[in-house]
Design a protein that fits this description.
This protein is of the alpha/beta class and about 220 residues long. Among the domains are: about 60 residues; about 50 residues, no CATH class. Helix content is about 30%, strand content about 20%. A six-stranded mixed β-sheet has the order 3-2-1-4-5-6, with helices on both faces. Helix 1 packs parallel to helix 6 and helix 2 runs parallel beside helix 3. It starts with 12 loop residues before the first strand and ends in an 18-residue tail after the last helix. The relative contact order is 0.18. The N terminus is likely disordered. This is VWA domain-containing protein.
Length: about 220
């Protein structure tokens, strides 16, 4: 007599969120790095309260500054993700961050084939100090990088809006602008709303509506 196969119920599908955060030396001014650290704590805490059988929010934070890229928060379930305050120092190796993001997206052991479309978030207050056009093209041409929902924030007057627009790669998409440090936190409230609305929707692969509240001034 053949044995009945064990019935298994599939768990929630991963919904990856990858943040590329500029932590170069210029982020030390005007309270920007402090606001970024607080914003990341608040976003992760908000994600912890999301409990859906359809989608499991997973978060990775890639920081770039000081000539290197760090996986400050390795890709993990938002329910268990934590944040340690990050210092700001050095240059802006954004090209290396694009390459690291592409490598993570294409790593099937980290992000399985059943995962929902990822969200990529980029924020920077300056210009890349390494070659970025080639790595960005590789990211956008990759299967998952090209399909990802992308959001971008330019911080202060020196942010390279051309690079941020190229990252979005969509003439109708908007680069958000933070003229004051407090607006970094407002931007991440918007990111949080975008991701959580996807996790709760009937089809988390559908593009979310991203609209900043008027009082947020982004």
């Amino acid at each position: 007599m053949s044995k009945l196969k064990e019935l298994t119920i599939p768990g929630a599908r991963p919904l990856p969120v990858i943040v590329l955060a500029d932590v170069s030396g210029s982020m030390n001014t005007d309270g920007k790095i402090q606001s970024l650290n607080q914003a990341m704590k608040e976003m992760l805490e908000s994600f912890k309260s999301e409990d859906d059988l359809r989608a499991e929010i997973q978060v990775a934070v890639l920081t770039f500054g000081g000539g290197t890229v760090r996986r400050h928060v390795p890709l993990t379930s938002a329910a268990s993700a934590g944040w340690t305050d990050h210092p700001a120092a050095g240059g802006t190796p954004m090209g290396a961050a694009f390459q690291t993001a592409k490598d993570l997206l294409e790593d099937r052991s980290a992000i399985p084939g059943r995962a929902y479309r990822p969200t990529l978030v980029l924020l920077s207050d300056g210009q890349p100090t390494d070659e970025w056009k080639g790595p960005l093209k590789v990211l956008l041409d990759s299967e998952r990088g090209g399909k990802a929902f992308r959001m971008a924030l330019g911080i202060g007057a020196d942010a390279d809006m051309e690079v941020l627009s190229a990252f979005l790669n969509d003439p109708e998409a908007r680069v958000f602008k933070a003229d004051e440090a407090r607006q970094i936190r407002e931007f991440f409230r918007l990111v949080t709303m975008s991701v959580t609305s996807r996790s709760r929707s009937a089809n988390p692969n559908v593009a979310p509506q991203v609209n900043a509240a008027e009082e947020w001034d982004l």
